[in-house]
Amino acid sequence: MSEPISGNHNDLNDIEVQFEVVTASLKEADIPIEGLFLNADAGFDSKTFRDFCAKKEINANVCFNKRNGNTQNREEYFDQKLYDQRYIIERTNA
Question: Where are the domains positioned within the chain?
């Protein structure tokens, strides 16, 4: 989704800037982002990332990260079947 960054970084490194770059690229290509579903792995499970998606009206389908605590009773949206399709697409692109 974004340009490679040298060094050892997690998925949320500089996410504010990277997310703006990605969404700006979509808008530049006349791809509306409002209403999009975004499948993301557990590395993106953060309140900050989910808030960015909500502000841009993007439906974040982010797998819950077990390191963030209880994954059973969270109120954030998560569709396992939709998420499973992410892996098929990711594997195909690889």
Answer: 15-93
